[in-house]
Each structure stands twice: as structure tokens, then as C-alpha cells.
């Protein structure tokens, strides 16, 4: 069900991606980003990108990359998106667990999420259940369309 993402997969996932960035509730991506820029960001710049496919439908995706370069290149970074129609079914957990295994296979020793919007309580709770700690809070880092300025968290997990 989880496999490497192809260009065709991204085209199929684009409506979900676009909906998520237009909502401006979880990702600090330009809501006016076009499909090609989104593809570059999600699939070309990272080391790897994966999809969760069920009944020939792309229901979720994640990218995996180094969080930094040089002496800190042993820490990975991921971003996850789940179709609104597939939420609450454990897909984010499956993608995160898959990403941790992939990170270890690629030689990473830790994973860091640089900006988890504090109002995204479902994600914050899941990441904590999966062993991530909040190691920092960035006050008023995110302009939420309904809540105004909210904090973002830096979350971290040692994988080995």
C-alpha cells in the first residue's frame, strides 16, 4: 500500500495537496503554489517521496529528506499529507512508521519536524504517541486563518 511516489501519483494527489495548502491550517506553503512548484517541493527536492494507495486511489503521501547539511545531516525531516476523506483511519501513523524505517535504512539517526502547528492537535498527539518530543516552541509562528497567530512546535525523535 505504501510505495515510491511517481509523477502520475502526484498528479492524482494534487487536488488533495492543493486543498490542504488552501486551508492554511497546517502547512506554511504558499496557497497560490501551482502544481509544478508543488511537485518540485514534494517530490524532486527531497530524497524520497512515498504514497499510500488503496483501491487505486492515492490517500496520503510523505516526503523524506535531510533536515540539515554537513555535521547535522544525520537528522531527517518529513512532511505528511492525508486526504481529508481518509483521515481517522490510521494512515498518518502508517506513513510515519514507514518513514522512520526508511530514514534508518538511508542512514539517518533521528527525525525532526521543524514546524508543527500547535492547533493541529491530532498531529501533535499522534507524533507524541509515536515517541516525538516537543523540543521547542516558536511563539506566534503561524498565521492561522481562524485562530490568528498560533505557536508552532519543533518535534524530535532519536530513531536508533
Automatic annotation (TrEMBL):
Q: Which CDD domains match?
A: NAT_SF
Tell me where in this chain the N-acetyltransferase domain is found: 1-160
Q: Which GO terms describe its molecular function?
A: acyltransferase activity, transferring groups other than amino-acyl groups
Q: Which PROSITE patterns match?
A: GNAT
Task: Name the domain of life this protein comes from.
Answer: Bacteria
Read off the InterPro entries from this record: Acyl_CoA_acyltransferase (IPR016181), GNAT_dom (IPR000182), Mito_N-acetyltransferase (IPR052742)
What Pfam families has UniProt attached to this entry? Acetyltransf_1 (PF00583)
What is the protein name stated in its UniProt record?
N-acetyltransferase domain-containing protein
Q: Which organism is it from?
A: Pseudoalteromonas luteoviolacea DSM 6061
